[in-house]
Structures are given as C-alpha cells and as structure tokens.
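Endonuclease/exonuclease/phosphatase family protein
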Amino acid sequence: MPLRAFHCNLTLLISCDRIEGFCLHSQSTNGSDTSELIKIATFNLFNFIEPPGAFYEFENIYTQEQWQKKLDWIATYIDEHQPDVIGFQEVFTPDALAQLTKRCGLEYFVVLDAPEVVDDFIYSKPVVALASRYPITEVHNVTVGDGWASMMGLQDDFGFSRKPLRATISLPKLGPCDCYVVHFKSKRPLFDAQALNGQTKPLTGSPDGNVGQLLAIEALGQWGSSIQRGSEAALLRYAMVERRTQTGNPMVLMGDFNDILSDGVLSALTSVDTRIKPDPLRGEVEHQLRDHRLNDAYELYQSSQYSLSCQQRPSTHYYFAKGSVLDYILLSSEFDIKNSRSLAEVGRYETYDRHLINPRFERDSQSTDHAPVMITISIRH
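Predicted structure tokens:
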C-alpha cells in the first residue's frame, strides 16, 4: 500500500471482530446508564508506520502480513473496549490511523504535527494524534510561551521534543472539554557516551578511569533528558492553566509521560506546594489553586465509591523484568467528586497488559510495548 498525504476521508476495510479472554485490571461502576458514561484512553502504538515506510533505520519496514497484524490488534482493542476518546503516541503515518479509527466508530480524528522523513521513506520523530466519537470543535498545537524558557534558564529556542496536541471535544452533558495528548521526552540520554568519549580528554591515573568517564558522560546525557522532560511538563502546565483561565473548560491530559508521575521531574504537573501568599479575601491558597489542579485518574478512582480494592497499580511498561507506570490520564477538578465544581467522577480504571505479562506470539507479536490505559467517567445527575 503506497504512502500518501494524510486526509480524513479515506476508507480502510479492516476487521473489528470481538475477542474473548481479555485479562483486565479493572473495576466498574454499579450499573450506571451507559448514556452517562464516557470512556477515555491513552495508547502508545509503538512504531505505527505503514509499509514501505521505515522507522528510524532503513531495515525497519513491516511486511504486509506484520502490518495487517498490527492493524488487527489495535482494531480489536478498540472494538472490545469501545473508548470514546483516544490519545495516541508514536504515530508515523496518521492517514492509516485515521482510516482504522473511523472504521471502528471514531468519526473524528486530528493530528497537527508531522514526523521527519529522510530519503522519502525513513521516518523519525513520531507525533501524537487523537480520535473521538464526539465532535472536535477546536484544535491547537501547544507551544512554549513567550519568554518563559529563558526565564527558566533554558535556551530561547527551547521546544517540546514532540508537540503536545490540544483538542476541544464536545462531550455529552459536559460540553466543551480540552483534551491534551502528550509524549514527553524519553529517559534515553541526549547523547551517546561512547560516541562522545573519543572527543573528550581521557582520564589517567586509574585503569578504570575510562569506564568511570563513560558512566559520568552517560549520567550527563540522562540528566539532560530529565531537564527536557521536566521542563516540558512545567511549560505544558502553564499553557493549560492559561487556557483554563480563558475558557473555564474541563481539562484532560493523557499520554506517555516516560517517567513516574510521583518522580520530582514531573511534579510540576500535579504539585500544589507553593510559597504564594493567599488573597485573604479568597481564602487559603490551596483552595484557590484547586480549580487549576490536575489529578491522577487512578488516584481519583481509588478514592471513589467504586474502588473494590487497594491492589498494586499495574505497570504500563516493562524494561526487562522491571515494570513502571509511564502512561497516565490526569483530570481537572470537574472530575474530582470531592471538589465543589465536580460534574463527573472516575467510575472505572483499566490497564490492558495481557500482551506484556502473558504474550502469545500468534496474537501479540505486532502489538505494543506499552499497556493502553482507559478510564470510564460517570456523569453526575
């Protein structure tokens, strides 16, 4: 199938047959009317690229059989779980994704950025996208606000490693909701320690000096990635608050954060620790900040009436045998039942990880290295 420019009116015939035996970490609401439920998911697709395109290196090209298998796996997940809104990461060929999601009932699709292409077929720097069952009324690529990067000690031309996407979606009973899709900078070092080692003055005095120097150089590269990732999180929060002040819309932030949310690098997204002096006429500063705070959907679910247990949170990614939660959905105060502005609550939280913890080659060989995460929002009467 030849590559072509992205457009939304293409049709891709692909099976959306249901399958059984899904191993879900989930708990559900107590029988609420389905017309009052909204499902939101985040899904890292892992190198979603239509052949004959290649990802990163010229030999990384799916065969037609592998590509169809990947499409089928994604379509089956969508059909089985029926999310209403999905934020996607690692998208190289958005036209094929638009066809797939439309075939599975998600009529609206948006992507604003484009990957880099070398020699007409080698792709790098994948982008984020969003598909929705409900109308998308406004879209915007989030950029760094004027002057803030330099005030943070960053270069004036600092930018997101992958531009976040904001889509305003008209949700039933909630109205316009600003949904953000992100893919923050990975933990991969900014530079290769061994490649740079030949350009640095070698250390002497110890036979282990070269190894120690390599480790130190690698630590510099890893910290550089942390600076990029943490700065992206802080600048995104500012952009979200700025938008919130202008519109008052509820906010949803979903994506691959490439780090643990509780880690200090990403603390800017949810932290309310402050030295700001409160306005005595408006009460405590924490109360004033509450409407602009983002909450982890998992934590909201655990504190809800629907939580059945305090089981350990399932990992969404594994590095060898070590699991981590890298994929998140954060919500504004409208989804916090304890907030006076609450309009809805998290009634279900699911991590789909069967392909990670119990994979079968014939079924999962072209799946993804992340676990999709989905929440179900229950609208208050």
